[in-house]
Amino acid sequence: MSVLKSFIAGQWVGEQAAKALPSAVNGEIVAHTHDDTLDFKDAVEYGRKVGGKNLMAMDFQERALALKAMAMYLQEHKKELYALSMHTGASKGDNGIDIDGGFGTLFSYASMGRRELPSGNVLHEGPVVPLGKNNHFAGTHIMVPRGGVAVHIDAYNFPVWGMLEKFAPTFLAGMPSIVKPATSTCYVTELAVRLMQESGALPEGSLQLIIGSTGDLFEHLEEQDVVTFTGSAATARKLRNHPNIINRSIPFNAEADSLNSAILAPDVTPEHEEFDIFVKEVGREMTAKAGQKCTAIRRVMVPRDQVEAVCDKLKERLSKVTVGDPSVEGVRMGALASIDQLEDVKANIQELLKTSELVVGGDDNFKPTGEGTENGAFIEPHLLLCRNPESGCGAHDIEAFGPVATVIPYDTIEDALALSAKGRGSLVTTLTTRDPAIAGKIVPALAAYHGRLHLLNAEAAKESTGHGSPLPMLKHGGPGRAGGGEELGGIRAVHHYLQRTSIQGSPTMLAAVTGEYVRGAELIEYDVHPFRRHFEDLQINESLLTHRRTVTEADIVNFGCLSGDHFYMHFDELAARESQFGKRIAHGYFVLSAAAGLFVSPGEGPVLANYGLDTLRFIEPVAPGDTIRARLTCKRKIDQGRTSPDGHPQGVVVWDVQVHNQNDEMVASYDILTLVAKKPE
């Protein structure tokens, strides 16, 4: 039988068998953990010195490319992960959530990194704030890699996604990871790490794997390190209070299991499509991953007069769920992750039954489908009903981490809000309603207790990713019992692994540090137009001051006729005279177009295309007779490694544009983005 290995300090370690890890499906031994002692001091130092050095030799853009390469390699080998993951009790659909969901997270962060992060390892978090009257002294914020290691402690229910959703933003941030998966399903994580190593995209030292106990790992962590945890609230409290975590103020992010809710609004009745959508959502969340999701619906809150209808519909739906070996055709729900987990769920169901009655489940004749499943960790879906929650309801305190949910009646919207709050903080709640006014009233009150709110109606159901699906671009986490932490949320997750620092100085100094042009900084001016220079030749602060142009009434008339914009401020002399401007003014977009005419170099050159426009503001009006000129300055360069249609490499250049009038007043301000070719090889 195979012995799983830890990947520590660049070596696979593990020869002596320790704990046997049985299949959740048939009880057969899948693998053993190892009994070899790990040197965690060496692991941490290796992560900092080797992993940190190698990651810092890359920039944000290069690390994003490496994430994409890893994701593509994992995608090519997912069948291996699927086959092994079956032993955790995961069905094909469950693997879609865990394995494909993990790959999708890597792809998402690779894409976000390419779009939103700069070249280099300094992320400028503006705006720049003038701190002196004449702009000789200013301040802004930068974010830089912390220089430590990130320790990620994951739960058993998502052995692939649980690792990758933390690893992806950590890697982008230039921080090496030490991953500790939950023991019962760590054999799947180990295979995923092996594949990531085989991909060739993982710099040495950037990822280490612990199989088994963390031992004295926390003793060797320092102020620049980070710890993240997913699991029970009790374990989170224990780890958060480790003396070294407290004494060194080491950031600790927790995402804990929570008592998530689904609320059926009073405007929805069995005659409405939303009623069936609600029942389908609850049933799906009860059975996906056999209910072993931190986001699973545990409390089902419905109007009191709809209790019987909801219970009947759920009973009908759950009766059609075939439980058993995921490899058997027709099986929709697999096993819990382990026999220990099965016993824990059964015990919690008995506690819940002290304040509730059983609607579905508890069948003495229940037998899972498939050979050998009598030795597996199977349980049928259990639906409970707490008829009188005002007299006490264990579902507000007890979580059976399996296919278990409790229906709880309410009388008014205010009651539903109060019942939801009894969970003391949740990751997610679904509100099913047909009425936007109800959503507008309920959501602000619910938001104080939740990390995410899923608003479900017939329209949203057409494309909804579901109650229990954290998405890379949206925050995952919640207050109170849910751990009080945050994960994902797009580039916000990368920020968790960077150090934010405010910097003050002259605009020229700030530009040198941020790698971006700061208004007021010393300019670089050449005889050659900036649009005639290739990507690698352009310098930050390189600038062009254009010739002047006087705006005429003919300009306004011609632009209005061309664009179809005959707004009164441009054409009605009397109305314009009575406005706050006291006169007719030119179209803002004419000013924008005229400025482009001033700074664009019309001939063929390295600038390939206009890529976009950001931060546009029209600051002062431009009237007939005013004279404008523009200053174009290279603000930021992003070497994305992208290729143009002819195969030549290129990058994105962000230009700062300021348009002034004859009184040196700024009339327009914006950033223009262009694709700029590199020199041909």
UniProtKB/TrEMBL annotation:
User: Which InterPro entries is this protein grouped with?
Assistant: Ald_DH/histidinol_DH, Ald_DH_C, Ald_DH_N, Aldehyde_DH_dom, HotDog_dom_sf, MaoC-like_dom, PaaN-DH
| Ranges for domain MaoC-like | 540-641
Residues forming the Aldehyde dehydrogenase domain are 25-501
Which NCBIfam families does this UniProt record tie to the protein? PaaN-DH, PRK11903.1
Tell me the domain of life.
Bacteria
Q: Which UniProt keywords apply?
A: Oxidoreductase
- Protein known as: Phenylacetic acid degradation bifunctional protein PaaZ
PANTHER family assigned: ALDEHYDE DEHYDROGENASE B-RELATED
A Pfam family that the UniProt record links to this protein: Aldedh
